[in-house]
Amino acid sequence: MKPAPAGEHVSAERIERCLDRLAVIVHRAGKSGHVYLPYAEYLEAALAEARARELSKDAIRERLMSRLKNGAAE
């Protein structure tokens, strides 16, 4: 998986795949898996931010579609 270009937002789906991979790494690490927890916390925060961003985009899109449907868009 190549990194996202600087300044580009990463999708929630991509972050979830990273969390899935990290879960496998933590499981395989056994008792020393706790060293990866800061990465999990970072990814969970990034996931929440990505989901909020996607919800905002969806809300804006729905608002526009509603206005277009009602003929009120300029």
Automatic annotation (TrEMBL):
- Its name, as the record gives it, is Uncharacterized protein
The protein's organism comes out as: Paradevosia tibetensis
